[in-house]
Structure formats: C-alpha cells, structure tokens
Amino acid sequence: MSSRLLIAHDPKSRGWQDRLSEFIDSAFDRLLRLYQRALHGSLDTLPVTTVFSLIVLSSIYFLYVEAGSELAPQEDQGIIITSASPAPNATLEQKLIYSRQVYAAFAEHRRRPTCSSLTCPVNRSPAWC
C-alpha cells in the first residue's frame, strides 16, 4: 500500500515541494555535522566529559532531596475527570439517568470534599457544550 502512496524523489524536478525538501535536508545535514563536531570535540577532551558527568550525577542528589518540598498543595490534588459516550440517539433524559449513577458513585467516596457533574444535551465532549 505504501508503495502506491509514496512517490520516489525525482532529482530533475524543481517544484516548490522539491526545493523545500532539499532545504530541509541540507539544514538537517548542517545540524548533524555541527553536532558531530561538538560531540567529537567534547568526548576527545576527557576532563570536560568528566566534569560534566560529575555535575549531572551530583545534581541528582539535590533534585531528590528537594522533590518532597516541591509537591503540589493539597487543594491541587485529587481531581477526577471522566467522559462518557452515550448512544448517538440517546435523549437528554436517558443521559441524565446514567449521569446520576456516575455522580452517585463519585459522591459516596469518603475523601471527596466536592463533586460536580456536567451533562451535555448533544453528543459532544463537555468542552463543546
């Protein structure tokens, strides 16, 4: 299937798509050569590589120690967002029956400070209601 959809690049063609393709290829080739030179230069210099690896490895400890104090506050935790897809021909009354059941299941949870529900009159996601 792909052999029928993909067309081989014709070097004689000079359309805008071919020029764009050549520009992108040459830009990535330049980026590749630049990256290879930089990587080769840094790996040839052992002290630079050693210092960089020590900096990265030592920063792991500080990130781990500070991770506990960077947690989100309690009011930003514990949200559950659900989406249900009823039958395409379901009426609003039918949707409300199932919506009430879902709401009741969430409302009985013991750690729930608040609970809200949104039922759309049309078969779309809540963002489009």
Structure overview:
This protein is mainly alpha-helical. It folds into two domains: 2-70, no CATH class; 74-128, no CATH class. 54% of the residues lie in helices and 0% in strands. The chain has four helices and no strands. It has helices at 2-5, 16-44, 46-66, 92-107. The longest helix is centred in the N-terminal third of the chain and has 29 residues, at 16-44. It is flat. It starts with a helix and ends in a 22-residue tail after the last helix. The mean pLDDT is 78.
Task: Pick out the low-confidence regions.
Answer: none
Q: Based on helices, strands and strand pairing, what is the structural class?
A: mainly alpha
- Strand content is under 5%
Count of the separate structural domains: 2
Q: Residue share in helices?
A: 40-55%
* Largest beta-sheet characterization: none
Mean of residue pLDDT values: 78
Q: Number of helical segments?
A: 4
Number of DSSP strands? 0
Query: What is the terminal-to-terminal distance?
Result: 40 Å
Helix-strand pattern: HHHH
